[in-house]
């Protein structure tokens, strides 16, 4: 009998948790980000997207790929993060 109660309570918890996932909201599509993603997917390896400060990591996760990240310049902090630090 005890296992039945545990099973029912567990099932209710899972059902309520799954229902809570329906409240997900997404950002509006951003054409600039979409273009950057397309450029990254069209490239191989680890690099900076030319003309941007965006790091493109389109490679399998192997140690030599991580080592390439060390050679890239640091990415600037996003403006929103800078405002948070100042405030």
Task: Please give a structural write-up.
By secondary structure, the protein is mostly helical. It has a domain at 31-72. The protein is built from four helices and two strands; from the N terminus they run ααββαα. The protein has helices spanning 2-20, 31-41, 63-70, 79-86; strands at residues 45-48, 55-58. The chain has a two-stranded antiparallel sheet. The mean pLDDT is 76.
Structural class: mainly alpha
Low-confidence stretches: none
Shape label:
elongated
Query: How much is the radius of gyration in Å?
Result: 22 Å
Q: Note the main sheet.
A: 2 strands, antiparallel
**Order of strands in the sheet with the most strands?**
1-2
H and E string: HHEEHH
Could you estimate the helical fraction of the residues in percent?
Answer: 40-55%
What is the number of helical segments per DSSP (H or I, 4+ residues)?
Answer: 4
Please report the total strand number as a whole number: 2
First-residue to last-residue Cα separation: 58 Å
Strand content: 5-15%
């Amino acid at each position: 009998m005890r296992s039945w109660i545990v099973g029912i309570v567990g099932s209710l918890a899972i059902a309520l948790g799954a229902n809570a996932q329906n409240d997900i909201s997404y950002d509006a599509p951003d054409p600039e980000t979409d273009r950057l993603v397309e450029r990254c997917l069209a490239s191989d390896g680890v690099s900076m997207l030319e003309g941007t400060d965006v790091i493109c990591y389109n490679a399998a996760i192997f140690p030599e790929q991580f080592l390439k990240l060390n050679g890239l310049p640091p990415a600037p902090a996003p403006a929103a993060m800078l405002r948070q630090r100042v405030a």
